[in-house]
Amino acid sequence: MEADLTTMMKLIFSLVSGGILAFFAYIYTVFFAKPRRLTSRLQTQGIKGPSPSLLLGNIPEIRRIQLQVQTESSAAKTSQMENPLPIDHNWPSTKLHVYNEKANCTALQGYCPCTNFFDALIMLIGAGPTFVYSTGKIQHLCTVDIDMVKEISLCTSLSLGKPSYLSKDRGPLLGQSIFSTNGLIWSHQRKIIAPEFYMDKVKCMVSLMVDSTTTMVRSWESRIEGDGGMAEINIDLEIRNLSADIISRACFGSNYTKGEEIFLKLRNLQDAMSRGFIGIPGSRYIPNKNNREIWKMEKEINSMILRVVKERAAANYEKDLLQVILEGAKSYGDQESFPSDVSLDRFIVDNCKAIYFAGHETTSITASWCLMLLAANQEWQDRARAEVLEICKGNLPDADMLRNMKTVSVPCNIQRNSSKSQSGISNLDFSTIYAQLTMVIQETMRLYPPVVFVIRTALQDLKFKGITIPKGMNIQIPIPIVQQNPGLWGPDAHQFNPRRFAKGIIGSSTSPQAYMPFGMGARICAGQHFAMAELKVIVSLILSKFSFSLSPAYHHSPRFGLVVQPGNGGILAFFAYIYTVFFAKPRRLTSRLQTQGIKGPSPSLLLGNIPEIRRIQLQVQTESSAAKTSQMENPLPIDHNWPSTKLHVYNEKANCTALQGYCPCTNFFDALIMLIGAGPTFVYSTGKIQHLCTVDIDMVKEISLCTSLSLGKPSYLSKDRGPLLGQSIFSTNGLIWSHQRKIIAPEFYMDKVKCMVSLMVDSTTTMVRSWESRIEGDGGMAEINIDLEIRNLSADIISRACFGSNYTKGEEIFLKLRNLQDAMSRGFIGIPGSRYIPNKNNREIWKMEKEINSMILRVVKERAAANYEKDLLQVILEGAKSYGDQESFPSDVSLDRFIVDNCKAIYFAGHETTAITASWCLMLLAANQEWQDRARAEVLEICKGNLPDADMLRNMKTVSVPCNIQRNSSKSQSGISNLDFSTIYAQLTMVIQETMRLYPPVVFVIRTALQDLKFKGITIPKGMNIQIPIPIVQQNPGLWGPDAHQFNPRRFAKGIIGSSTSPQAYMPFGMGARICAGQHFAMAELKVIVSLILSKFSFSLSPAYHHSPRFGLVVQPGNGVSLHIRRVT
Fold first, then answer.
1. What value does the mean pLDDT take over residues 426-446?
2. Can you give the residue range of the structural domain that contains 15?
3. How would you label 791-824 residue by residue, b for 16+ Cβ within 10 Å and e otherwise?
4. Is 869 buried (19+), middle (13-18) or exposed (0-12) by CB count in 10 A?
C-alpha cells in the first residue's frame, strides 16, 4: 500500500510539475520567446524599440510617461481653465523629435487628456518614425513614415489582415465580423455587405436620413422656442440617438426606439472595453467587476439581436442589409472551407453588432466634432450655410443636392463682409463655393478621425520599404499623428483650415495616403459613402435652420478610447436663426410701423397670428351655421358678399354681424378684419411673414403708381410657393424680373394677341360642338359641369397659342399643375419649417414638382429637336440663353430653372385664372337672364352669324355712353329682343369686368419693400410685405356705391375710370409696373369663350348648383358650376 501511495504521489507530483513547467514554457514562449523572435528580426533591420517586460510588455513605461506628462501639464490645464485659450487641435502631440526614456516633455500649449498617450507612444523610443513596442503579449510595429504608410495602403494581399486580438480582446464588441476577420471569411463578408453601401444604394437611403434628422431639428426648434429664442443643447447625445435611428431605419428596417436598448448596451459595452490595455495576459478571463459587466452585456446584446432577427424572419420585409446578412449566413454555412467555430448565429450577431456600432457611433462623433468646429469658426459656419441655402433652395436635401456639395478643383477665395444679397446670404463667390461643406467635413475627420489607428497584421512575411515584417507582427499607424504632421500638411497642420481640401484629397497634402479617416487599402471602410451622405444631411439641415456658437460650459477634452470623442460632451448654444427670423426681425419691422400709428395684434414666436385667425374663423363659422342651415332649406338669392367687407371696429370679444348668406370663404376675411381694434391699414403675421394689410384707397393709389424696382415681390412666393412659381416672372425682382418681363410681355401685346384669336376660336368651337352633341343626345337640354370643361379648353388654348402643342399633348402637365395648386392651397404660408416636414401633403408636392419639371424639360427637348415657328416657348428659350450671358444675374437660377419656372408659371396663370373667370362669368349670366340676353344680343349683332375674329372682339368694347336698354317681349326677325344696338356694344366687356370685380381670379395684390419706401406719409421698412385684399377693395360700398355686393355690369358703362370713385379700386389684373403681362390675352380669350357659348346656347343654373366660392391660390367654385344648357333657336 505504501509503495502504491508513494507511486501515486510521485505521479501526481510529476503531473503537477509537468503542468507548471508547461505553463511557464507557454508563458515563456508567448510572452518572451515569440515577441523576442519578432522584435529581433526587426532590430537586425534597424528598427528600434524599448525592451518589454515579461508579462506587461511596455505598459509600465507608457503608464509612467503618461503620469510624467500629466503632472507637467497640470499647471497649463489650470491656467487654461482660468484664462481660456483658443481651442488647440494639437491633441495627438505630433512632435516627432528625438526623445529618450528620461527626456522631459515640452510644455503643452493647452491641456488635453488624450495628449499624454501619444506623447508616451513617441517618447518610448530614442529616435525614428518607425519603432516597435508591446502591450502585454502583443507586439506593435508603429510607423508614421509616409513611404511605408503608402506601401501598406497599396497592398491588396490577403496576407495583410487584421490582428487576432480584435476578435479576442475586443471580441464582445467586434467578434468574428467584417472588421476583425481575415481570409476567405472576410472576403465573403465583404462581398455581401459592401454592395449595400454602394452609391446607388446610398442614394435611396437619403430620404430616410432626412426624415430622421428633420424630427430632431423640430425638437430643437421647440426647445429654442420654449427657452425664449436660444437653447443650450448637449449635441453629442442627441446626434448619437439620431445616427442610431438612421442606421436602424436604413439598414435594419426598424427605428431607434425599437433598438434603443441595443444601442444603449452597445455604448456601455464600448465604454467598459475602453478601460485598460489590450494584450495583458489572461486579463479578459479575470472575473472582476468590469469583465463581469462585459460578459453580461455581451450575452444580453446577442440575445436582443437574435430576437430582432427572429421577428424579421416571421415578417415580410423588403431586402435591406439585415436581409442580406441573413442570406449571407445561409450561403456561409454551405462553404466547407470556412471555420467551423463560427456558427450561423454568431455570423449574424457579430456582423449586426459591428455595423450597429460602427454605423452610428463613429458617424455621430464626427458630426459632433464638425458642429463644434463650425461653432468655434463662425466664418466657416457662414460659408457652409451659404452653400446649403444656395444648393437646397429652401428644400429638404436629396441625393442630387448632396452630390452638388462636392470638392471642386478651384480654390475658394471668399471674403466675409456685412453686405447682404436679397436672400440674406453674404455676398459669396458662388462659382467657387460648392466645396464648402465637404471641405469642412474632410477637415473635421483630419483633425478628429473617428478611429485612432489603422491596424494590420502580417499573416505571412511581408516587405514594406525594404523592411521585412515577420509573420505575426502587428502593424499600427496612428492616424491623428500622420494627419497632423506639419511635414505632410504644412505649418498650419494643427489648425482648422478646410481650404486645404479645395483641390480635393489629392491636393490637400504632399501625399494622398496621409489622409485615412476611413482606413486604407483593401480594408477601407465599406460604409464611407453612407457616412459622408449622413454627415452632409445632418450638418446641412442644422445649418439651414440654426446658427450656433460654443457654450461657455464647453471644455475641449478629446477622450481617447475605441474612438476619439468629446470628453465632456459637445455643448453648443443654438442662437436660433429661428429667433432672428421669427422674433427679432418681425419685432423690428412691426415696431417701426407701430411708432407711426399702425396697429396690429402681437404675434406668437413661431406661428404669428395664425392661432387668432383660426380662432376667429371658428367663431364666425359657428355663428353662421344657423344661416347656412336656413339657406340650405330655403335658398336665398346668390350673395356675392363673400369677402365680408364690413370694415367696422371689432374687438376680440365682438360678435360677428349676421351673414346675409353662408359662404365658406367668408370667415377668412372676417378673421383678417377682426384681428385689430380699428383701421383700414394694419399689420399682422402668418408665421415668420409680416403683412402690412391695407384697404385704404389713398395708400392703394400711391402703391399702384410706384414704378420703383424697390417695390417687388416677397421672397416667400419663390420659397413657400416655389414648387408652383419658382423663380418666374411672377415671383422675382430686380434685374432678373426686368429681363423676364422684357422677353415675355411683348408676346402678349395686342398685335400678337390678334394673331392668336383664330386659335382660341378653333379650340372653343371644338368644345361647343361636343356640347351640341351632348344636348342632342339628352333630348334638347344637358346638365354640364362647365368649370372642368372650360379648364381643359383654356389649357388647350394656352398650349396652342404659346407652346406650339395642344392640351392632349400637355394634359398630364396641366393635371399635375392642378393637383399641385390644390396641395399648395392647404394651410398658411410662413409656418416655420412647414415646407420641409415630410408629411403626406409635402411629399406629394415634392413628387409632383419633380415630375412637372421633368415633363416640361422633355417638351423643351422635343422642341429643340424640331423646327417650330417663333412663339412664347421659343422666346423663353432664347431669353434663357441671353440670361446666361448676364454676369449680374443670380447664379442660383440655372438655364433649366429659368425655362421651367417661367413655363410652369405661364401654364398655371395662362389657363387656371382665365378658366375660373369664364366659369364665374357664365354662372352670373345664368343667374341673371336679363344680362345674358343683352350680352347675347351684342354678340349676334356684331358677329352676324360668323365666328368671332379680332376685329369683332374690338367692337365688344366699353363706350362712354350709358346703356339705356329695355327688355320686352317683342322680337325682331332674328328672334332677339328689340334692343337699342347703337348703345349696346359694351355689354360683354361690362359683364366680364363685373365678373372680375366680384370674383377676381387672385385674391391679393402682394408686394414687398426691398428698400424703405413711403406711402401716404407712412414709411414701410425694408423687408415688410404689403398686402391688398382685392375682393374687399372691389366690394367696398364707399368706393362702388350701395350696390357694391350686387351684380350690376352697368357700373362699367363709362369704362373702368367711371365705375367707382377711384380707378385704382379695380385691380383684377394687379396694378402698377407689375400688372399682369397677359391681360390682353386673357380678355380676348374670355370674349371668345363667352361669345361663342352665348351665340350657340341659352343656359340657367342647375338646382344642383350651390354657391360656394373656395379661397385658395385662386378663388374658384367650391362645388363646381353646373348649368342647364339648351341650344339657341
1. 67
2. 1-73+111-136
3. bbbbbbbbbbbbbbbebeebeebbebbbebbebb
4. exposed
Angle of CA points 688, 692, 697, to nearest 5°:
160
- Asked if 744 contacts 803 with a C-beta cutoff of 8 angstroms, the reply is no
CATH number of the domain within which 253 lies: 1.10.630.10
Question: What is the structure's pLDDT at 1039?
Answer: 93
| 1032, 931: one domain | no
Is 1019 exposed, middle or buried (CB count within 10 Å of its CB: 0-12, 13-18, 19+)?
middle
Quick check: is 209 in a domain? Answer: yes
Is the model's pLDDT at 682 over the cut of 50?
Answer: yes
Whether the CA torsion 386, 391, 395, 397 is positive or negative: it is negative
Taking residue 686's Cβ as centre, other Cβ atoms within 10 Å add up to: 21
Q: What is the rounded distance in angstroms from the CA atom of residue 593 to the CA atom of residue 443?
A: 47
- Whether 534 and 603 share a structural domain: no
Residues 145 and 128 in one domain: no
**Residue 362 in domain:** yes
28: which strand partners? none
| 320, 185: one domain | yes
- DSSP notation for 191-227: HHHGGGGSHHHHHHHHHHHHHHHHHHHHHHHHHHHHT
Residue 221's Cβ-side half-sphere holds a number of Cα atoms within 13 Å equal to 24
Look at residue 201 in the predicted model and tell me its pLDDT.
86
- Specify if 81 maps to a domain: no
DSSP symbol at 1057: T
- Cα end-to-end span (Å), the chain: 141
Q: Reply yes or no on whether the pLDDT at 1065 is more than 60.
A: yes
H/E/C letters for each residue in 334-388? CCCCCCCCCCHHHHHHHHHHHHHHHHHHHHHHHHHHHHHHHHHCHHHHHHHHHHH
User: What are the pLDDT digits (tens) for 571-599?
Assistant: 565 555 555 666 667 778 888 888 998 88
What digits encode the pLDDT tens for the residues 771-828? 999 999 999 999 999 988 998 888 888 887 776 665 566 667 777 887 887 787 776 5
Secondary structure E strands in 613-703: 681-686, 689-694
447 SS3 class: helix
Work out the angle at residue 664's Cα, subtended by the Cα atoms of residues 659 and 669, and round it to the nearest 5 degrees.
Answer: 70
- Indicate whether 594 and 490 sit together in one domain: no
For residue 356, being part of any structural domain is answered with: yes
**Exposed/middle/buried for 750, CB within 10 Å: 0-12, 13-18, 19+?**
exposed
Residue 550 in 3-state DSSP? strand
Query: Which range is least confidently modeled, 319-328, 348-357, 697-706, 894-903?
Result: 319-328
Dist. CA 351–CA 359, nearest whole Å: 11
pLDDT cut 90: percent of the chain above it = 21
In the chain, how many domains are there? 4
Query: Residues 890, 988: one domain?
Result: yes
Q: Residue 566: what are its φ and ψ, rounded to 5°? A: -60, 125
Residues 773 and 837 placed together within one structural domain of the fold: yes
pLDDT score at 264: 75
pLDDT interval class at 280 (50, 70, 90) = low
Query: Which residue shows C-alpha cell 423690428?
Result: 588
The number of helix segments (H) and strand segments (E) in the chain equals 44, 24
pLDDT of residue 1092 exceeding 90, the answer is yes
Residue with the bigger pLDDT between 410 and 736: it is 736
Query: Are residues 458 and 347 both part of a single domain?
Result: yes
Q: Is the dihedral of CA 13, 17, 20, 23 positive or negative?
A: negative
| Whole-number pLDDT of residue 705 | 92
Least confident of 227-241, 397-411, 951-965, 1025-1039: 951-965
| Averaged confidence pLDDT in the chain | 76
Nearest to 845 by CA among 930, 721, 948, 756: 721
Pairing of strands 474-478, 453-458: antiparallel
Q: What are phi and psi of 21, to 5 degrees?
A: -65, -40
pLDDT at 977: 39
